[in-house]
């Protein structure tokens, strides 16, 4: 089989040239990072779980009319996606205070917000993905005002869908981040949800116990990340047949 051309490699995924023009193959790695790459480990099965979970969420969003880059899952670790022009923003939706917001504002983690809050951070690892106001986004040409309005609308629709799905399986959606891409048709473009939606990009707490079922398990050394992600997949009914709870500790990357 011919060697595939690598287009991009990030901390958790690799993008390869797709079989058709305008497509890519997205490969989910087992690598986990925190603190902007300061903490690293290899977590057995993480890539398989995130591939299946992202497929579940992207397909669900498409079912309610929210466009995404997802085309189909190819195997346990790869999916076929549309090639998009990524807008250099992380779009963050917060339902409860947690993480950097709680620290920044001196709020107790888990405090419910009066309404969902949409924030933007500039995608730049060297700068630590700093938060930016909407005026920056428009002024620096990262997105037009119309695009920005549409991005907020998409983010809130994703939030409604995700919150409902998670609540139905006893999980509270604390916050999440998504990326948005443009698909061009001559001079016109449409916005789609891109990258991934998985426990890597969400904060998920058990409603009854408050147990964390997301990457904070790795960030804060709270136990097995694979077990946490497996529990989310089990509740949603998308547990891959070849993945079970793994008591093994992660393998640190030197």
Molecular structure report:
The protein is an alpha+beta fold. The protein folds into 2 domains: 6-84 and 224-248, Phosphorylase Kinase, domain 1 (2-Layer Sandwich); 86-206, 2-Layer Sandwich (D-amino Acid Aminotransferase, Chain A, domain 1), CATH 3.30.470. Helices cover 28% and strands 33% of the residues. The chain contains 6 helices and 15 strands. The strands form 3 sheets. Strands 8, 9, 10, 11, 12, 13 and 14 form a 7-stranded antiparallel β-sheet that branches. The protein has a 5-stranded antiparallel β-sheet with strand order 1-2-3-7-6. Strand 12 and strand 13 (188-194) form a beta hairpin. Helix 1 packs parallel to helix 6 (225-236). The two termini are 32 Å apart. Residues 245-254 have low confidence and may be disordered.
Summary?
The protein is built from six helices and 15 strands.
The first-level CATH class of the largest domain is given as: Alpha Beta
Biggest sheet character? 7 strands, antiparallel
How many independent structural domains? 2
Instruction: Estimate what percentage of residues fall within beta strands.
Output: 25-35%
CATH superfamily of the largest domain: ATP-grasp fold, B domain
Total strands: the figure is 15
Helix content: 25-40%
Structural class computed from helices and strand pairing: alpha+beta
CATH topology of the largest domain: D-amino Acid Aminotransferase, Chain A, domain 1
Average predicted confidence as pLDDT: 93
CATH architecture of the largest domain: 2-Layer Sandwich
The run of helices and strands is: EEEEEHEEEEHEEHHEEEHHE
Distance between the termini: 32 Å
Q: Number of helix segments?
A: 6
- Rg for CA atoms: 18 Å
Shape: globular
């Amino acid at each position: 089989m011919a060697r595939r051309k690598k287009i991009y490699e990030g901390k958790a995924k690799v993008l390869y040239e797709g079989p058709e023009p305008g497509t890519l193959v997205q490969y989910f790695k087992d690598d986990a990072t925190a603190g902007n790459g300061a903490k690293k480990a290899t977590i057995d099965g993480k890539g398989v779980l995130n591939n299946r979970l992202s497929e579940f969420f992207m397909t669900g969003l498409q079912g309610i009319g929210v466009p995404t880059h997802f085309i189909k899952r190819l195997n346990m670790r790869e999916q076929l996606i549309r090639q998009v022009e990524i807008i250099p923003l992380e779009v963050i939706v917060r339902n409860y205070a947690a993480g950097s917001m709680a620290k920044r504002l001196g709020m107790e983690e888990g405090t419910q917000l009066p309404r969902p809050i949409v924030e933007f951070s500039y995608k730049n690892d060297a700068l630590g993905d700093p938060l930016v106001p909407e005026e920056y986004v428009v002024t620096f040409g990262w997105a037009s005002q119309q695009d920005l309005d549409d991005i907020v609308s998409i983010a809130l629709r994703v939030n409604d869908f995700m919150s409902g799905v998670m609540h139905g399986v006893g999980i509270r959606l604390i916050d999440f981040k998504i990326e948005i891409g443009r698909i061009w048709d001559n001079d016109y473009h449409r916005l789609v949800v891109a990258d991934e939606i998985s426990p890597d990009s969400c904060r998920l707490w058990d409603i009854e116990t408050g147990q964390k079922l997301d990457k904070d398990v790795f960030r804060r050394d709270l136990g097995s990340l694979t077990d946490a992600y497996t529990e989310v997949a089990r509740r949603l009914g998308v547990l891959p047949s070849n993945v079970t709870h793994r008591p093994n500790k992660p393998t640190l990357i030197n």
